[in-house]
Each structure stands twice: as C-alpha cells, then as structure tokens.
Amino acid sequence: GAIVSSLPGKTFGERTRYGIQRGYDAGRPVLMRLEIEKTPLISQIATFALPLYTGEADFVVPHRGGPTGNLFSLGYPIAQACAEKFGDTWFKDLTGTPFELDMWSGTRAWRRELTDYFLDASIDTEFPGADGKSNNWACYFVPVARILRDVPQKGFKIQSVPILFHYPPEQAAVEGNDPAFTEKRRVQLQLI
Predict the structure, then answer these.
(1) Is 115 helix (H, G, I), strand (E, B) or coil?
(2) pTM for the complete prediction?
(3) Angle between helices 138-154 and 12-25 (to 10 degrees)
(4) Short-list 47, 83, 62, CA closest to 191
C-alpha cells in the first residue's frame, strides 16, 4: 500500500526526501514521487511502474499526453505548455539523452537501488534558491540529471512511458490565470 507522509515547516526538498526515505525504509522495491494535484496519474501508476518491476527499466518518467505527448491538447495553460516543452528539449540537449523526458510532469519512479540520488541533501546547498535557501525545484531536476550522467558507467536503463493524462480543469483554471505559475516555470528553467 501507499505511504502518505507529511513534514510541516520544512523546505520542499526536505519534505520530498522525508517521504522518499519512508518508502525506502519500508523496503519498497520501487519508489515514486507523485504530485497530489495530478489526480489523473493515480490510475496510470501500474503503467509507468511495470517496467521497473519487470527489470526493463531502473528509472521511469511518465510522458503526459499519451503517444503524441501533446500538452496543448490536454487543456494545459499555454504559457506553461510552451515553457515545459522548451525545458524538456533543453534538458535533453544538456544531458545528451537520446529521447525527451517529460521533466515537468513532476512524477518519477525508480528501483530502490537509485534512491540515494533522491536523498542527497547537498542538493539544497549546491543549488540555492533566490533567497539563499533551498531551491524548491532542485530536488525535481538534479537527481535525474545525475542519474542520466551515470548511465554510461552504471548501465542504468531509463524509460519514458506514455500515459493518458488529462489536466484537471480546476487546476488549469487556477494556474492559467495566475502569473505566479509563469514565474515558477521561469525559475525552474533558470535552474537547468
């Protein structure tokens, strides 16, 4: 079953690592990080976790939009869809990944052997936010970049698994009209 954890009063990175550590300590063979507001992903967990259980992959990033990967057709706010598409292409070019990962989906799944990449607290100090404290988004992107960096030496198998995803209309309405979400994407792109 799922383990739901909460750690109030800490940074985003600390809370993320706390949840991951709980899953690891429980002996889970596969761990994942989900974003609670993306409820349509819940029904797709088996789809993107299966390659980890069968040994076809060590690390999986679900790709929203199904086989076409078209965020624009999902009711996604246009500014965010453009920023995310640009960021995914940029991330692919920077890491030399032979295929595009949907880095802005927020969801990641991995075999427990890769958990140390996600528990590295030094990420908070290596990639500080504008306020000099933890960069909220470093825990999303830096572990993935490091896993991709180590693929040649360690032979990790990476997969991008298409999933059927429909952006919740309530979330689109809030995010599409709030300039803070455009600023959030800018900060995330700057981190990369």
Answers:
(1) helix
(2) 0.84
(3) 50
(4) 83
